[in-house]
Structure formats: C-alpha cells, structure tokens
Design goal:
The chain is of the alpha+beta class. The protein contains 24 helices and twelve strands. The strands form two sheets. It has a six-stranded antiparallel barrel. A six-stranded antiparallel β-barrel has the order 7-8-9-12-11-10. A hairpin with a 5-residue loop joins strand 2 (45-53) and strand 3. Helix 10 runs antiparallel to helix 11 (323-336) and helix 15 runs antiparallel to helix 16 (414-426). The protein is elongated. The protein starts with a helix and ends with a helix.
Length: 562
C-alpha cells in the first residue's frame, strides 16, 4: 500500500515549468485533479485511474468502472496530498459516473462546476491527466452537445484523446468545469466524449439506496441521504444488509448530521443495547432526552428499549435498568403527554412484572380511546387468565375482541377467534369452538399447520362430528405424515366409529413411527380385541403397560378377570 501511494505522489509532483499555452487558472485547477487507486478486501490493487474534486469538503467524481467491486480506495491530489475515500455518495453504471468523498479535516482544492451547459463549437480546454510529465492543456471544441435529463449535456469533442485522458476535466475559458472525459466504446473511433459534471454532482443516495445495484457493487460505505426522514428509511433497510461496524458508522454519521435532534441518539442507543454496550446506550438516551422537543417521545422510546432488553432471558441487569425502570419511564412519558400509547406501554410493563390486575386495568382503560381494538381486549383477557379469574369473565373479554369485527371477518380477526375457541373448548362448548375454528381456517388458509387440524378434530369428536373429524385428522397426516400422535389419533377416530380394521392400520403405523409410544400399543391391543385377536391383543396391551400406560394395565386386569 505504501508503495502504491509513493508512486502516485511521485507522479503527481508538479513540474516547475508551466507552458505559456496554459490559461491563468490552470495551476490552481490542476491541484483539484486526483490520481486514484482502488483495492479489494485484502488491500490488493484493483485498478488505478484519475478524477477531480468538485467540492471543498473532499467531494470528487471519477468513472464508475474504477470503483466497481472495490472495498477501499486512496487518492493523491494535484498538490501531493493523500486521502482515503470515506463514502460513496452516488453511482451510475449507465453514465459511468461515481461521486464520492474523501476523509479530510481541511478544505480540498476543487473545480467550480459551470452553471452553463455550453454551446456548440465553444472553445474548451482539456486538463492533462495528473501523471503526465509535461503539464500542457489541450485546446478543443464542443463539436456536438446532446441534452439528457432535460438540462445536462453529453459532449462530442473535436479531437480523439488516448485513454490516459479518461476522467480529465473539460474546462471553459472562464476556468469552470463543463464535463469529464469518458471511455470510448470503440477505441478506433475518432472523436472523444464527455459527460456533464453538473449531472455527476446530482448523484446521491436516497431512502431505498440499500437496494441500488450500482451502489451495492461498490463495497465502500455509502453516504447517508440528506433528508432525515430518508435517513431513517435508509437505516431501516440497511440494518440487515450490512455488518455491525459499518452500521455503527452510519449511526455516527446520522448523529453528526443532526447533533441537535433526538432520533439519532435514540437509534444509536438501541444499537448499543443490542451489543451490550449499556454505558454508551445510557449516554445516548440521556442526550436524546435532553435534545428532544417532545420529551414524552424520548421517555417512551427509552421505556421500550429497556422493556425489550428485559424480555431477553440472557440479559444481566445493568444498574437500575429493570422492568420497573421501563415502567417508570412509561409513566414519565404519560406525565408529559397523556397519550393512550403510553398507557399501553404501562400495561405491557405491568404484565411483564406479573401485576396482572393493574395491567388489565390499563388495557381496559383504552376502550374509550382511539386505541380501542381487539388486541386490547385479548391482552385484558390474558391478564384475567394469568390472575386466575373465572373462565366466563375471560370469555366475555374475548367476545368483545371478536365483536370489534363484523362478518365477513377480515384476517385481523383470526387471533381473537382462535383465543375464544380455546376458552370455549375448556368450557365444553365444543360446537361453538368448532364454528370459531372454521372461521379461523377460512381466514388463514395456506398458513394453517397440521396441529390446527389435529386440534379441531378433537373438538369435532367431542360433539360427534365424526366425518369432519376423519377429514381433519387425514389432513394433519398429509401435512406431517411422520408424526406418530396423528396416526394414533386417527386410530381413535376410526375405533369410535366402529371401523376397527382401519383403526388397527393407523395404530400399527403409530407404533412403527415410535416404538416407545405406549398409547399406540394400547390402541393396537384394543383394536385386536374387537377383531377377536385376543392373544396378540394381550401382548400389545402388556407392552403398553410396560411403557407406563396405566389404562392398558386396567384393561389387562379386566381381561384377566374374564
């Protein structure tokens, strides 16, 4: 690496001789030119080329191909200073342009971008490429100008330039940059071409840049969008696509861009918490609260973070960061602004603290707010269940949850229907439970599991819906054919309807899948007794008893008495 930089620095040492042909602004402009080397992840040289600064903050442009697949890049300016490329600001494979920024604490020399598109046959200068020994500007003309995107120019020059001029600036007589020399598709073609630098300056990241294939082909970190709302979306989209170190840098950039806002610190605190750096998270959340115009929002965010942290079973409590702290922060948020959302957070933390009666009260207090929903009633019902309340009071709340919807039900009603069906089953109201499960099946369709059909089959058996029970247990087996419990249940269904031979087939299959399943041997024995296969039946009942099946032992006693 040091060798690469030394070579670039040596090549960029300016000659003390400046040709009389050069315009008066040449020396200053040439300092903005840079030589670039890009590298792979291992630091090996990938490509080398040229470019130039267009901003005093270290913003520069070059060709896209130079940066393709690069993980790192270094530049040396026309005045011999070395820089590391910090971020990619924008990229376009279509126009072969990349805009990037280097790491610098001082201003960099930069070319001024012309506000004009230029005119046909206008005289222009081509700055010599940075490593050229003799620094002499080339005189040329804008032979043709094609407009694109409404206001930008694609230039055909009057002369043919060799590839060493790739990315060289095309300058006006006033010393402002109009275009950048591009590579020729056909090396034998006589004219050279340039792309508008004003267009290159428009390249930037946006909210959805994490899905941009041109940007993703470059391994160097990307610049954040300029708008805060876009930054939040960018961070959300990027979180799962980048490593933690790079994501942390993005969060640092966010805080640097908006040091007086609350959200950057809250997001970074969340990141620190997830990585166990609680001291840094605490500092950021305190800063977020201090910066926040709406203190309630900051307290609420802090409460949620600590609440989530305490739900993690591996979390070891830091200072006073327990669930009581999460509750206190939610209460503080409510004190600053009594929003229903904060009441919900209070209810959640109280539930986590196992204070079910108070939690239930918080949830039910939301009935007369804009947060009234099926979920509120289901949360309250769960609190009642955990507090040991009578089943009918739980059912009443679940009825209220279902009543939040009208028929035909939408998918959001599915959890309420499923919860109510469980309570109805416990009350022995099997037909009502089946009706809820039928509605649930209609809503969930392809998301149903084998266990759902097994569960509904049991309810159907309780209310003598035998054909429906047969259909459901067969569905469960088709979905999970190697589950011995389902085959045993199928044996029970067919035994109940008097189809003992079919029941025996299923019971044998259950034994085959799990030779240690005592219930299955008992079912085999019962079927064999019905089919007058007494000797074999007693053997299987004995095997079931040996495996701990008490019912099998009782049957053996009865058979022995006979």
């Amino acid at each position: 690496m040091r060798k690469h930089i030394f070579i670039l620095t040596a090549l960029l040492t300016l000659s003390s001789y400046v040709s009389a042909q050069n315009p008066k602004w040449f020396k200053k402009a040439s300092k903005a030119q840079i030589s670039i080397i890009t590298m792979n992840e291992k630091g090996d040289l990938l490509r080398s080329g040229n470019g130039f600064f267009i901003g005093k903050d270290g913003t520069a442009v070059a060709d896209y191909q130079l940066f393709k697949q690069a993980s790192k890049a270094k530049v040396v300016s026309g005045d011999g200073k070395e820089y590391e490329v910090d971020v990619i600001i924008g990229a376009s494979s279509l126009y072969d342009l990349v805009k990037f920024r280097v790491k610098t604490e001082k201003e960099t020399p930069a070319l001024t971008i012309s506000e004009r598109i230029g005119v046909k046959n206008e005289h222009v200068y081509i700055l010599p490429y940075p490593t050229k020994d003799k620094k002499i500007c080339l005189n040329d003309t804008l032979h043709e100008i094609q407009k694109f995107n409404g206001e930008y120019g694609y230039y055909t020059l009057g002369h043919s330039l060799d590839d060493k001029y790739l990315n060289s600036p095309v300058m006006s007589d006033e010393g402002e940059v109009l275009g950048m020399i591009q590579r020729r598709a056909d090396a034998a073609a006589s004219p050279s071409f340039a792309i508008s630098v004003a267009y290159g300056n428009t390249l930037c990241t946006h909210a959805m840049s994490s899905t941009d294939s041109d940007l993703n082909t470059i391994g160097i970190r990307k610049a954040l969008p300029t708008e805060e709302a876009d930054i939040r979306t960018f961070l959300f989209m990027t979180a799962a696509r980048t490593d933690s170190a790079t994501y942390n840098q993005y969060l640092n950039d966010y805080a640097r861009l908006y040091p007086d806002h609350s959200e950057p610190y809250a997001q970074r605190a969340d990141f620190y918490m997830a990585h166990g750096n609680y001291e840094a998270a605490e500092n950021d959340m305190n800063q977020a609260i201090a910066n926040a115009e709406k203190k309630d929002e900051a307290y609420y965010t802090f409460s949620k973070l600590i609440y989530s942290l305490n739900l993690n079973p591996t979390y070891s409590v830091y200072k006073d960061w327990d669930m009581n702290k999460a509750l206190a922060l939610a209460e503080e948020a409510y004190r600053h602004n009594p929003l229903p959302l904060y009441t919900l957070q209070e209810g959640n933390t109280l539930y986590a603290l196992k204070d079910y009666e108070k939690a239930c009260g918080k949830y039910l207090s939301l009935r007369e707010t804009n947060m009234r929903s099926a979920s509120i009633f289901l949360y309250a019902a769960q609190c009642k269940r955990m507090a040991g309340a009578d089943t009918l009071s739980i059912l009443a709340l679940q009825d209220s949850a279902v009543a939040c919807f009208t028929k035909p039900y939408v998918k959001d009603a599915a959890p309420a229907l499923l919860e109510r069906s469980t309570t109805l089953l416990s009350l022995g109201r099997f037909r009502e439970a089946v009706l809820d499960l039928n509605e649930y099946e209609h809503l969930m369709r392809d998301e149903l599991t084998s266990y759902f059909y097994y569960r509904r089959e049991q309810a159907e058996m309780k209310c003598h819906m035998f054909q429906q029970a047969v259909d459901d247990i067969d569905r469960a087996i088709r979905m999970e054919p190697d589950e011995p419990l389902y085959h045993a249940e199928r044996a029970v269904v067919y035994y109940r309807i008097g189809e003992f031979s079919e029941a025996l087939v299923s019971a044998h299959k259950s034994v085959e899948l799990n030779p240690e399943f005592g219930d299955a041997y008992r079912l085999v024995g019962l079927c064999q007794l019905k089919l007058k296969q007494r000797e074999e039946a007693l053997k299987n009942l004995q095997k079931a008893a040996e495996l701990g099946d008490e019912s099998a032992s009782d049957i053996l006693k009865e058979e022995g008495a006979q």
